[in-house]
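input
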Amino acid sequence: MSQINALVGTLKRVLRSHGLTYRDVAASLDMSEVSVKRMFSSRRAAMTLQRLESVCRLVDLDLTDLVAHYEQSKQHISALTLAQEEHLVADRSLLLVALLVRNGWGFADILGAYRFSASECVHLLAQLDRLGLIELQPGNRIRLRISRDFRWLSNGPIERFFEHEVQTEFLHSRFDADGEMRLYLSGALTAQSIERVQHSLRRVAAEFADAQLGDSTRPPAKRQNIGLLLAMRPWYLSAFDTYRREPRPPTA
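output
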């Protein structure tokens, strides 16, 4: 893939994470939607640098930011080993810095918000470098070495940490303030409907990952930490068990 096509592909993902369509781009550039689709086609080298810059301005990016997005979106590691996750959980300061750099925080950002000395921060970043999460570059610049679809191990040390230490605190909210939302739905679905809803939930998770990647070059002061919980499983309220004629179906 040529470099220009690689950047165009990255720009498409950034536009999608901002909720912008080809129609929005066409209106901004005073072009037809068909022409914009042709311009974004990976089979054609139709995107000039001038057009690329014009589209970048729609999402307040310059070409340097776009290149940074592309570098971060390259395939690197998609998961840590069990031993690596255990190492992170064993050191809360290391886990904190790992979560910060995954969200696009830089060296100065971390020092400005947390009580680490410069040498302590370098030491923690060096450990993350050895774990393969980042590449610590000259001047304490941080380059992520994880893929877009990076996930913590299922039921691994990090997930258990969040389950035991974060989940209860996260759910202890009325979810009625600005930026908060909680939806709970209950109903009987067919297997086909369950599969369709699960597909939608996976799409939401992908959109969240795209948005996180798209916003990762913004200064931390311009961003807000957001928790997103997606959950779906067969479930019956145990308080009603005493009223059942038959034992409730197993759910775990």
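quick obs: The chain has a mean pLDDT of 83.
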